[in-house]
Amino acid sequence: MELPLGFLAGATRAGLKPSGNPDLALLYGEGPLAWAYVATTNRAAAPCVLRGRQRHASEAPLRALVVNAGNANAATGEAGVAADLGMAELAAERLGVRPDEVLTASTGVIGVPLPVDRIAAALPGIRLGSSLEPFAEAILTTDTRPKLAEVPLPGGARVVGVAKGSGMIHPNMATMFGFLLTDAALDQAELRARWPEVVNATFNQVTVDGDTSTNDMAAIFASGAKGRVEPGFFWEAVTAVARDLARQIAADGEGATKLIEVRVVGAASLTDARRAARAVAGSLLWKAAVYGNDPNWGRVLAALGYSGALLDPARVRIELEGIPLYDGAPLPFDREEAARAMQRAEVRVRADLRQGGFEAEAWGSDLTEGYVKINAEYTT
Amino acid sequence: MELPLGFLAGATRAGLKPSGNPDLALLYGEGPLAWAYVATTNRAAAPCVLRGRQRHASEAPLRALVVNAGNANAATGEAGVAADLGMAELAAERLGVRPDEVLTASTGVIGVPLPVDRIAAALPGIRLGSSLEPFAEAILTTDTRPKLAEVPLPGGARVVGVAKGSGMIHPNMATMFGFLLTDAALDQAELRARWPEVVNATFNQVTVDGDTSTNDMAAIFASGAKGRVEPGFFWEAVTAVARDLARQIAADGEGATKLIEVRVVGAASLTDARRAARAVAGSLLWKAAVYGNDPNWGRVLAALGYSGALLDPARVRIELEGIPLYDGAPLPFDREEAARAMQRAEVRVRADLRQGGFEAEAWGSDLTEGYVKINAEYTT
Fold first, then answer.
1. Catalytic annotation on B141?
2. What ipTM did this prediction achieve?
3. Which of A93, A232, A287, B224 could bond A367 through an S-S bridge, CB–CB 3.0 to 4.6 Å?
4. Cβ within 8 Å, pair B214-A302
């Protein structure tokens, strides 16, 4: 995928991933980039997150993003803070910008010192170009495929996105990176005013395992090279790209064979709609049922019930792939047909709470033996 | 296990479990029983829970408890409410007490009408006796073993407990029943004043899969047959029995091969200590690591970090089976030795937050392929 105008990117192998795959990626703005940033709420947040928050608070534009995948550089004490700064300094040197113009991002194993010497050795080897694919490949960890999305804007500008996900994925940022790039011109203040709401409606509605990571972040960068666009178009495109990436992240959850899409309508508030949708998408019992093609809607109702959202089970309606299963009481349905409908790569559940006019989506993946296998054997 | 004085119990087969095992259990008080009750916070709570809350609010003593295992009678609409009342009426008739003196409890599949006719047909066949074992067997669902505990009191009275657990286990009541029985004499007001705190420290600190069920309850019944005991002894015994049962429930989580015991000390508040311990015990990533004998303490720190408890990762200390792994920064440790220490049936983690003087325990189980298998194939 072609980068928007004003951006260059590249990647290389630094030897951080046991697989030997590319694991160090650079994104470069030919000029100053307006940006907005949301990061993990985890109190054990990694140095890259702490530093990113500082950079964000400075309100200064950025020039670059450096990402390593393979080592989260979290829980690494003072040495980790120094390593993170070192990564920024090395990237700045490579690109001819100032270290405080470089955002850092790390993902991978927690608690292992980040070998900055390998990053130093590898950075000069990165060739910057106009394709996003090498960057998208290099930021992956246990993901099985790169995650890219784009939406064109009127006038030739574009919104392009790249993400990584896979495990430790849960609202309020998971081991999830979502980076959106645009060559539209936006005031940084406007970006910052609306970006968190886009993240809340998309990336924060993805749940793979309920574990909120120490390192996650979602950021948007605008080069402005194509000039201003109508804000309505722009935010629609940004939301579409972020939603597309969120779905890709859920579909590629660790060990996943299916994407679960949950739509809750009729909620008493937006908060209720979101928490109810997340509870269903995150219910281990429902995730296991989806894996087993088991239309066990009782688990959906149970998850709605403990989500905290206002509801009365006598008024709730649940549909699975368009098949009504429950409407205040169990409905008769063809179990074979419902089980067959669940054999798709994407399983959609819809719940109407009949409490009000708010709705939300959430995405998760099925729970499989593969998830257990991947996570029982991660470091040893 | 012998029942405390003043209680009788028994069980039979009503044909609610596909296995054909006993699934209908009665507990009978020879006189009025003082009691206290805590039940699920799930908004889709089953009729037995709604009825139990009404009985509790009436402040009247009880005479009996009837439990069916195999059908949760949840999400069954108006018919479910009638079925629950029917079960109480039938049990009352069998025992010669009033229906409003009978507490009901159901567990099993959600959304399938409860066949009251089978309960009617089976109830006369229950022979009441002084042993708790038949009751303990009959209330199980996917549990692999009955859960019993007892502690003697000075003067010959006893506290005896029986529980079932297995899946959908999470704080604020899971598919968990915990019933404690004593022949000590306690004012009902005193029982009710202190029982919720016992539940918070024990049953509500168990997490198997994060799914809070529609049906769970924890209750204590006192016959008074052995007279009054010193309250200090009594509540210590009650807490010990409830803790023992909580550990048994966690150890027998669906697909579990190990019990995970988490102890958090040095928390800024009791709430912080409990939520931090629960977050670790409930982290899928840590549960999978325990299954794989992987001393990946980074996942413990990450869970503490997202628990919401006040902490600074630079001050946290983490020990696994007594081996220090992290103390503000990673500590060198023998990975082989740590992996060997994890091969026990019980894996203990201890975290010191160094924020204050509060501590708590939580219990969970490892996450295995077996959990996925059980829950992917539950109803179909």
1. no
2. 0.79
3. A287
4. yes
Locate all alpha helices (DSSP H) within chain B, ordered by sequence.
Answer: 47-58, 77-95, 116-122, 133-138, 188-201, 231-251, 270-282, 284-291, 297-306, 335-341, 369-376
Say if B167 is an interface residue toward chain A (CB within 8 Å).
yes
Name the closest residue on chain B to residue A377, using Cα atoms: B292
What would the pLDDT profile of B281-290 be if each residue is shown by its tens digit?
Answer: 988 889 989 9
Domain ranges in chain A are 7-251, 259-376
Q: How many CB atoms lie within 10 A of CB B232?
A: 8
pTM of the entire predicted model: 0.85
- Going by DSSP bridges, is the β-strand pair B24-39/B177-182 parallel, antiparallel, or unpaired? unpaired
CATH of B7-251, one of 3.40.50.1820, 3.40.50.150, 3.60.70.12, 3.90.1170.30: 3.60.70.12
8 A C-beta contact, residue A99 and residue A62: no
Asked if B168 and A328 come within 8 Å (Cβ–Cβ), the reply is no
Across the interface, whether the CB atoms of B42 and A306 are under 8 A apart is answered yes
Cα A49 from Cα A56, distance rounded (Å): 10
CATH match for B259-376 among 1.10.1660.10, 3.10.20.340, 3.20.190.10, 3.40.462.10:
3.10.20.340
Identify the three-state secondary structure at position B301: helix
- Exposure letters A106-143 (e unless 16+ CB within 10 A, then b): bbbbbbbebbbebbbebbeebebeeebebbbbbbbbbb
- Nearest-Cα residue of chain A relative to residue B311: A43
What is the largest distance, in Å, between two alpha-carbon atoms of chain A? Answer: 67
Handedness of CA A318, A324, A325, A330 (dihedral sign): positive
- In this structure, what are the phi and psi dihedrals at residue A229, rounded to the nearest 5 degrees? -125, 165
